[in-house]
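Narrative of activities, Objective 1.

The group set out to show that a structural description can be obtained from nothing but a protein's sequence at a throughput compatible with the screening campaign. Below is one input-output pair from the validation batch, recorded exactly as produced.
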Amino acid sequence: MTSQHQNEQQESTKKRILVVDDEPDITFTLKEGLEKSGLFDVETFTDPSSALSNFKSGYYDFLLIDIRMPKIDGYELYDKIRAIDAKVKACFISAYNVNYKALREQFPTIKMECYAKPLEIDELIRKITDELDQN
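Output recorded for this entry:
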């Protein structure tokens, strides 16, 4: 098998993650950390409206969505994305305390807890991988 063929095969097995956070330094850090693992291709948006207008059903395997953003908060964005693709897995990220009970009641399809910023990349990779392996 040629090196190019191996690289193409590895690229096709990577999971696609969409990160939406209004802080560019957060999106940059998450993209760099997650892609460095070699397991993920990451697309980022700092504007939730742009993320929504560019969202493609069946394209992403996982979403990381900030809760507090201008114009559209993370919950509203998630609702709109789920109307487009009900199968995509997601979790919320936040620098603020989150009421997990209310979160689970509002979004029963989300099995993972909300992640508190700052995020530990290795732990995040493990949790995303575990969640994606539960298919």
